[in-house]
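Run log, item B.
One chain of 274 residues. Sequence copied directly from the ordering sheet:
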Amino acid sequence: MSIQIGLKERVGYSKIKMNYFAVILHRRRRDKIMKRKIVSLFIAVLTLALCFTGCYRVQPIDGPESDAPSKKTESTEKKTLSEAGKTAEINIQIEDNNGENKVQIPKFESNTESAAIAELNKEIEDTVVAFYNTANSRKNEWPFITTRSFDHERYLQTVVQYEAFPNIEGPSVKTYIYDKYEDKAITVDESFSIAKTTADKLQKSVERARITNDAASIRNFEVQGFMFTKSGDIEYFVKYEYNSGMDAANELMTYTLTDGELHEMTEDGVFIAE
């Protein structure tokens, strides 16, 4: 028995087949359009994210003004040593252990001539060497001068502590700082600009940091020297008088900007946080 498909049936079948393919094509076009939209949206989001992270920077919020010195002292910009700085070093020019004398006096040296190094050596001559010659020339008096030197990446520094026995005023300090990058001597006043502070602000900070409970303010406050630590912060060597009358006394202390604290002298002398 044969089944014959009429013309109408064949035409209907063709229409169904064409509709089927039309639906398939429509779905494919729709899927392609959706994929394009998704890809475009992803690219837009990614571009926005990259722009956001690359262009936006969080700005520090300025806090209230304070008398506390700034802890930041150095730029992170990479620099190179000057010609004089490449060979700069500190040696002992005078050493005297005769009798009760205990003396070490430093001197800056370099294979390259440097006006800054000559300036530092003249200052040592005019202060420490002059002090030594005067004390050593007197009877019943002997000089006690110690030198501690530090060669950090940028700064070549020496801390000289000196006094003449017998002595009721305690020791004093002189510091000599050489910038190997810039081939220059750094003074105490210049350190104030670097640390964004002043002698008056330092005195207020020291008064707040004192651990004693007495209400007497300090007097004759003097910033005798400073030193850069390896991290680039600054510590100050300060001397002052406190109390009055028979209770009057002097203190030689180290005030460190990193922790805002006073440090007493150690067995080696004035406290130094390298």
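Observations after the first pass:
- Residues 196-274 form one domain.
- Residues 1-26, 42-66, 71-76 have pLDDT under 50 and may be disordered.
Flagged for discussion on Thursday.
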